[in-house]
Amino acid sequence: MAYLVCKKCAGYYELREGESPKDFDKCQCGGSLRYVETINVKKFGLSSKNMIRISGVLFGASIILIPYYLFSPIPSSASFVLNHIDSFILWSTGGFAAALIAGGKIINGASNGLYSAIISGLIVIIIFYLLLVNSFNNPSFTDNIAFFAALSVIYILIPAIFSIIGGLIGISIRKGLNKLI
Ligand SMILES: [Zn+2]
After folding, report:
1. In the chain, where are the structural domains located?
2. Where does the pLDDT of residue 134 fall: very low under 50, low under 70, confident under 90, or very high at 90 and above?
């Protein structure tokens, strides 16, 4: 069995007897084709599943970032998000959305919620650090670690608690819907 695999969309075409790879110029999507002797179909199935999971986690992360946009006028006041109950609701919603899109097992609902919180938290910390680095007096390596650890509690750990709970609710609802259908 021989196949042509698209380098762009990962679509593949099984060559029939008498067909030559030279008969095919490009994939329907315009991507160039690669000739392979064997193909691992399962691998392609897994990768599209991972793509859905990644999209779910990124979508969840963008929802988790909304409270910073709403309640933190400048990065140094980013902890203002903790004064608004809407932040906790949006953090839970982020985990909920990530789990609902990504699917998987119950434990995946919790971990996808956690990944969303980690990604959004790291974005906030990096922005915070880049904008404030000039106001620090030659921070040493240990200063940086301490700074990162302190901010991780506020911007990763606390949102993560809510997004994990949201993720567990999201995956439970998704499982419930799957049973109904
Ligand atoms: Zn293609």
Report:
1. 3-39, 47-180
2. low
Note the pTM of the prediction, 2 decimals.
0.70
Q: How far apart are CA 86 and CA 168, in angstroms?
A: 19
Alpha carbon of 3 to ligand 1 centroid (Å): 13
Task: Give distance in angstroms: CA of 167 to centre of ligand 1.
Answer: 34
Q: Output the CA angle 33-35-39, nearest 5 degrees.
A: 105
- Read off φ and ψ for residue 2, nearest 5 degrees: -130, 150
How many whole angstroms separate alpha carbon 75 and alpha carbon 160? 20
Protein residues within 5 Å, CB atom, of ion ligand 1: 6, 8-9, 11, 27, 29, 31
Structure tokens at 39: 């193909």
Q: How far is the CA of 43 from the centre of ligand 1 (A)?
A: 17
For residue 158, how far is its CA from the centre of ligand 1 (angstroms)?
42
Q: Is the pLDDT of residue 74 over 90?
A: no
pLDDT tens sequence across 151-164: 898 899 999 999 99
Going from the Cα of 12 to the center of ligand 1, the distance in angstroms, rounded, reads: 8
